[in-house]
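Give me structure tokens for this 162-residue protein.
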Amino acid sequence: MKQVIIKLHISILLAGATGLFGKLITLNEGLLVWYRMLLASGLFFLFLVVSKRFRRISVHDFIRIAGVGFLIALHWVFFYGSIKASNVSVGVVSFSTVGFFTALFEPLILKRKIRLREFIYSFISLLGVCLIFSLDVRYRLGIGLGVISGALASLLPYIPNG
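Here you go.
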């Protein structure tokens, strides 16, 4: 249990640092995501070559992987756009709506009944976000972009494998 809590705290620190660095870097959100993904894909390619795990893939697999990459890039553009349009806390809190969108999209995508408890809990978190930021209109654009980021991130687990 102790390891799980440590991993949770590390992931929270990394998530917060991502937003902080996104705010501090002066590039616009599109270029920031472009360079971030270029660096990540280059390092991953290098890792595959060095570990001798690199192999050719089919065009179909390439298109699927590119689609996933596009969705992730779009999510990051909206996330960093939210931070640039407002501040780090608005971007991260708005992104927390991912739970609401997961509770909403999962039953639609998997063609199952909506679990009322999941929907109610996630809706309460959405209301919390609305309550926090309803008092200050300066952050509406940032909130909107962060909510879109959360919606896009909630779709990632449901990308078909074949």
